[in-house]
Specification:
With 150 residues, the chain is an all-alpha fold. 67% of the residues lie in helices and 0% in strands. It is rod-shaped, with a radius of gyration of 32 Å. The relative contact order is 0.06.
Length: 150
């Protein structure tokens, strides 16, 4: 039984002998790679053709990696934005009049961002909003004089 692409076999063989990659032939003629592999398995390529295919493959790999980096960065940005949105939603739902919740939030913040090796209380975040929250909460909960904080 002949495949439905049989009439294109001669063209595929001609392209392969000219040094085309199986992938290029697949895209150009629309023939499945599995069919092409069977048809083209015995065709020997010249060393120059093999070298060109290898160079083309390396270039395509570099291009694919660049594309993958862009995709991964976009996905990461999307995940970070979603996490930020969820965090902001949670923060908006907190009752800041409840001192126990504020103490819990301060403790969690300090566990994540605070200095734990020294005797003094210190915050290591470079985010101004985190630092403002830390200072405002210390003042609100414990009445600390912010002028005494370095």
């Amino acid at each position: 039984m002949k495949s439905k692409w049989f009439e294109l076999k001669a063209e595929a063989i001609k392209l392969r002998k000219r040094g085309f990659s199986i992938g290029k032939i697949e895209r150009y003629l629309g023939i499945p790679r599995s069919t092409l592999s069977g048809w083209l398995k015995d065709i020997q390529l010249a060393p120059a053709q093999k070298k060109k295919l290898l160079q083309d493959w390396k270039k395509a790999l570099i291009k694919a990696r660049r594309k993958a980096v862009l995709w991964h960065n976009a996905q990461k940005e999307k995940r970070l934005k979603e996490a930020e949105n969820q965090a902001m939603e949670t923060i908006r739902s907190i009752d800041i009049a409840d001192k126990k919740i504020l103490e819990l939030a301060l403790a969690i913040l300090y566990m994540g961002e605070g200095t734990k090796r020294k005797v003094e209380t210190a915050m290591g975040s470079s985010d101004p909003l985190v630092l403002k929250f830390f200072l405002a909460t210390l003042k609100m909960l414990y009445g600390l004089d912010l002028k005494k904080i370095k």
